[in-house]
Design brief:
There is one protein chain. By secondary structure, this protein is mainly β. It has 2 domains: 83 residues, Elongation Factor Tu (Ef-tu), domain 3 (Beta Barrel), CATH 2.40.30.60; 62 residues, SH3 type barrels (Roll), CATH 2.30.30.240. Strands 11-10-9-8-13-12 form a 6-stranded mixed β-sheet. The chain has a 5-stranded antiparallel β-sheet with strand order 5-6-2-1-7. The radius of gyration is 20 Å and the shape is elongated. The chain starts with a strand and ends in a 17-residue tail after the last strand. 19% of the residues are buried.
Length: 176
């Protein structure tokens, strides 16, 4: 089995003419991206070593060893940087890395299958868990204690308590 990889940063546009780039980090402390050693692309084909880093307005400005010109930096725009999961610190009770949740079975309180966790999103108003049922469209549900009261990583599942009301179109009506 391959070691899960966690995306900790994405390289943005060049910053200046000497190879610096904007760096968008996905770590609790943005500067922690320098604590994990060399960063790799998802396929492991390229390795990047942070040379310098400083905070900017909502992102970091970083240089990487071997990236010495604006042209070199332009070619890196959009590259995502990963580390092996085991390099991350342990989480507190009730905290989870998204990568640990993806792939878990989703069951209801009686143990009946609901689907499988395919993603965890955050569009600014809190985490949303995406569940793919065996048939039909995926479900986007708030990742709250009320909707997901149990996360059992060892058992490989989350328990879903469907909200009593979901606002949206009534599937029994038609505009035809």
């Amino acid at each position: 089995m391959t070691t899960p990889k966690i995306c900790v940063a994405r390289i943005g546009a060049p910053h200046g003419v000497r190879g610096a780039v904007k760096l968008w980090t996905f770590t609790e402390d943005p500067l922690a991206v320098t604590d994990y050693g060399p960063l790799k692309t998802l396929d492991g084909g390229r390795t990047f070593e942070v040379d310098t880093v400083r905070e900017a307005n909502g992102h970091l400005v970083a240089t990487f060893k071997g990236v010495d010109s604006r042209e070199d930096a332009e070619r890196l725009n959009g590259v995502e940087l990963y580390i092996p999961r085991e390099k991350l610190p342990d989480t507190e009770d009730g905290e989870y890395y998204h990568a640990d949740l993806i792939g878990l079975a989703a069951i209801d309180a009686a143990g009946a299958p609901v689907g499988r966790v395919v993603a965890v999103h955050n569009f600014g108003a809190g985490d949303i868990i995406e569940i793919a049922p065996p048939l039909g469209n995926t479900l986007l549900l708030p990742f709250t204690n009320a909707v997901v009261p149990t996360v059992d990583l060892k058992a490989g599942h989350v328990v879903i308590e469907m909200p009593a009301e979901i606002i949206g179109e009534d599937p029994t009506t038609s505009d035809d």
